[in-house]
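Researcher: Sequence recovery benchmark, item below. Answer with residues only.
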């Protein structure tokens, strides 16, 4: 019954979201009800179990808290000040605008998981700048759309929370995934920097006039407070991993039980929001109406993320009650595929599903079987989750439906079709390769 429930959940989600064009939150709610009905006479009992488990999970709160955090960070202009610091470092290099675009996408990816939002925010600043410095519109649009996936391949993001809500992630620490995904995402950032290096030489981009650029010291003196945002990530990480955690968890100090209650996915958005409010207080002073308008404008996203996470969590609990984990493991074991081939099949499946669907919908639909499948060939759960997130990050760069493609192309004033092949060659295929290498254990991440 567990596998049947999973198939029903996937089918209802895809049909509601793609042919019927219903919002993903509505699609997942209907899929939740359909999943419960698979239990027959126990449907109401299963639904209650699933709903109660979802309401009692901190992932539901964390998902909405990260949306709120993104609004605060954007309204205070903190990211703009960070980009100015990046500009002072990379702006003097050949192709400097492209390096700044990539670094900016990574910075935004650390505080907001939306691929479309990433492309819109970074592209509005760096696409005109890249074109002024000799880059073609097609190159600029391709880079911004390709980099938009950093919103999913770097923590935190709602896709990560949905995967953590699946039965396959039972026993997996959200903090472990956060740190491991940070390392996996760093590989993706480094690869994109390499792409910029190659493109700069191939396209003959020259060094720009740096006389009008602020020096690193000048940029840091005016915008150093923006770097305090990273303390909002570093403090929860230090309190949940490593030597400081080991020292504090001793019974003679705070104790293992108390330290174990610190949730990295709860405290990161709280601390970053507080830091952004303090750091950006001068910009907000006398302009609190701007922040209120930004929060109101983001209200639909709060609802989408909250309802989607709730429905995915509840459905996961129902599938778990119906035994989806053991049943999938048994079925996959009978297939007896070699590890490299099975990993590749899982990665390709995730990318193909993420092409018409968002990464969030993809995670809700296939995360559980994908993680379980990788587990049958001894891929640790944390590594499997990170590899899957890297694969679903291609949603923004996958032609022909990725929203960032059309956003970036519009800003660059080029035909979106001109970016399709470059996106596949330079971003989709290499990202699949990175995910495959991570799952195979050849690109190491903490597990």
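Model:
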């Amino acid at each position: 019954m567990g596998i049947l429930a999973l198939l029903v959940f996937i089918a209802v989600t895809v049909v509601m979201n793609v042919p019927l064009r219903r919002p993903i939150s509505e699609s997942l709610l209907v899929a939740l009800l359909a999943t419960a009905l698979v239990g027959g006479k126990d449907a109401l009992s299963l639904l209650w179990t699933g709903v109660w488990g979802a309401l009692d999970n901190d992932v539901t709160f964390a998902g909405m808290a990260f949306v709120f955090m993104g609004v605060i960070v954007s309204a205070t202009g903190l990211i703009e000040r960070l980009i100015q610091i990046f500009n002072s470092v990379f702006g003097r290099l050949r192709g400097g605008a492209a390096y700044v675009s990539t670094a900016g996408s990574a910075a935004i990816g650390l505080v907001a998981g939306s691929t479309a939002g990433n492309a819109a925010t970074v592209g509005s600043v760096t696409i005109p700048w890249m074109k002024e410095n000799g880059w073609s519109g097609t190159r600029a649009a391709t880079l911004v759309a390709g980099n938009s996936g950093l919103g999913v391949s770097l923590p935190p993001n709602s896709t990560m929370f949905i995967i953590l809500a699946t039965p396959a992630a039972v026993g997996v620490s959200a903090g472990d995934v956060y740190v491991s995904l940070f390392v996996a995402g760093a590989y993706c950032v480094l690869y994109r920097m390499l792409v910029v290096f190659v493109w700069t030489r191939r396209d003959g981009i020259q060094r720009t006039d740096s006389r009008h650029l602020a020096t690193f010291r000048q940029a840091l003196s005016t915008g150093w407070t923006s770097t305090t945002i990273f303390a909002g990530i570093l403090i929860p990480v230090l309190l949940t991993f490593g030597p400081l955690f080991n020292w504090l968890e001793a019974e003679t100090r705070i104790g293992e039980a108390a330290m174990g209650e610190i949730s990295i996915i709860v405290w990161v958005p709280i601390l970053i929001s507080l830091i952004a409010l303090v750091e950006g207080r001068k910009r907000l002073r006398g302009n609190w109406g701007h922040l209120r308008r930004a929060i109101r404008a983001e209200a639909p996203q709060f609802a989408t993320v909250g309802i989607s996470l709730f429905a995915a969590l509840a459905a996961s609990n129902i599938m778990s009650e119906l035994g989806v984990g053991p049943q999938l493991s048994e079925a996959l074991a009978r297939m007896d595929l070699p590890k490299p081939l099975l990993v590749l099949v899982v990665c390709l499946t995730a990318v193909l599903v993420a092409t018409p669907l968002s990464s969030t919908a993809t995670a809700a639909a296939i995360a559980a079987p994908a993680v379980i499948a990788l587990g049958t060939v001894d891929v640790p759960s944390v590594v499997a989750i990170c590899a899957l997130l890297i694969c679903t990050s291609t949603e923004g760069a996958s032609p022909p439906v990725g929203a960032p493609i059309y956003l970036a192309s519009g800003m660059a004033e080029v035909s979106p079709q001109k970016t399709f092949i470059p996106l596949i060659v330079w971003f989709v295929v290499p990202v699949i390769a990175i995910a495959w290498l991570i799952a195979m254990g050849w690109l190491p991440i903490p597990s």
